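TASK: fixed-backbone design
INPUT:
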């Protein structure tokens, strides 16, 4: 859907190639190249989910729900994923936070879609993500 620019993967893998990181998150909230301004409540929900996740993982991410995440293969080999949809981000974040891995974050551009353009996320997805933040940090 091109909300994210595939060309930015080269920037995302750079800290791994340089031996600095094991995991890299792309952040829509750290100065990237550009971003389309849309939906205050989506941004607020994302920041809330990231805040709760950070409190429970002791990480300092700015965008836990980002689509762009890059992992070294050996990190992914140690993670078993149960969730799909928007539960994936809280689950993988909780699980890698318990590992001895170096996590980096890099600003990325973002061109979000409107609902008329095909965006499908709703407040129910936010509740599901919050459930996963709690589940994988407190009960796993």
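OUTPUT:
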């Amino acid at each position: 859907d091109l909300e994210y620019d595939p060309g930015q993967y080269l920037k995302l893998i750079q800290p791994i190639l340089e031996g600095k990181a094991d995991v890299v998150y792309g952040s829509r909230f750290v100065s990237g190249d550009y971003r389309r301004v849309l939906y205050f409540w989506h941004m607020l929900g994302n920041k809330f989910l990231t805040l709760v996740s950070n409190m429970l993982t002791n990480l300092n991410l700015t965008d836990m729900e980002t689509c762009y995440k890059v992992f070294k293969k050996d990190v992914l080999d140690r993670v078993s994923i149960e969730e799909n949809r928007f539960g994936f981000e809280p689950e993988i974040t909780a699980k890698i936070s318990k590992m001895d891995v170096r996590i980096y974050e890099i600003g990325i551009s973002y061109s979000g879609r409107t609902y008329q353009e095909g965006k499908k996320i709703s407040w129910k997805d936010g509740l599901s993500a919050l459930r996963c933040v709690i589940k994988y940090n407190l009960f796993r």
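COMMENT: Residues 6-138 form a domain with the Spore Coat Polysaccharide Biosynthesis Protein SpsA; Chain A fold (CATH 3.90.550.10).
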